[in-house]
């Protein structure tokens, strides 16, 4: 798994909603405009970036993403000292 944090500053409500929907398809919202994603492949991040780039205005909108290595993910906590949640290694349906 590859772990990413996405955040954005988008003024237009419709665009902000559409970007949020894209990110929610791949991960969890942890704040209003901050999302944590656990992706299986590099193809997923490429697909997300393509979708977002089609709908944002690069002159007014700011979308950022950060890759979290395994070590940085293990060291990540919130202010209450709780570790950042990780998805289960195996999901049985």
TrEMBL record:
The enzyme's E.C. designation: 3.1.-.-
Kindly report, in one word, the top-level EC class recorded for this enzyme: hydrolase
The signal sequence is none
> What SUPFAM superfamilies does the record point to?
TTP0101/SSO1404-like
What's one GO BP annotation on this UniProt entry? defense response to virus
What this protein is reported to do is described as: CRISPR (clustered regularly interspaced short palindromic repeat), is an adaptive immune system that provides protection against mobile genetic elements (viruses, transposable elements and conjugative plasmids). CRISPR clusters contain sequences complementary to antecedent mobile elements and target invading nucleic acids. CRISPR clusters are transcribed and processed into CRISPR RNA (crRNA). Functions as a ssRNA-specific endoribonuclease. Involved in the integration of spacer DNA into the CRISPR cassette.
Q: How does it assemble?
A: Homodimer, forms a heterotetramer with a Cas1 homodimer.
What is stated as this protein's family in its record?
Answer: Belongs to the CRISPR-associated endoribonuclease Cas2 protein family.
Which of this chain's residues are annotated to bind Mg(2+)? 9
Q: What is this protein called?
A: CRISPR-associated endoribonuclease Cas2
GO molecular function, one example?
RNA endonuclease activity
The protein's UniProt keywords, in alphabetical order, are: Antiviral defense, Endonuclease, Hydrolase, Magnesium, Metal-binding, Nuclease
- The gene behind this protein is cas2
Cofactor(s) needed: Mg(2+)
Q: InterPro entries recorded for this chain?
A: CRISPR_associated_Cas2, Virulence_VapD/CRISPR_Cas2
């Amino acid at each position: 798994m590859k772990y990413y944090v996405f955040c954005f500053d988008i003024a237009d409500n419709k665009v902000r909603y559409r970007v949020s929907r894209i990110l929610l398809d791949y991960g969890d919202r942890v704040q209003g405009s901050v999302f944590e994603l656990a992706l299986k492949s590099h193809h997923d991040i490429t697909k997300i970036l393509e979708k977002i780039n089609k709908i944002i205005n690069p002159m007014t909108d700011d979308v950022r993403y950060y890759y979290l290595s395994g070590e940085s993910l293990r060291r990540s906590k919130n202010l209450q000292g709780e570790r950042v949640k990780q998805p289960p290694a195996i999901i049985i349906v």
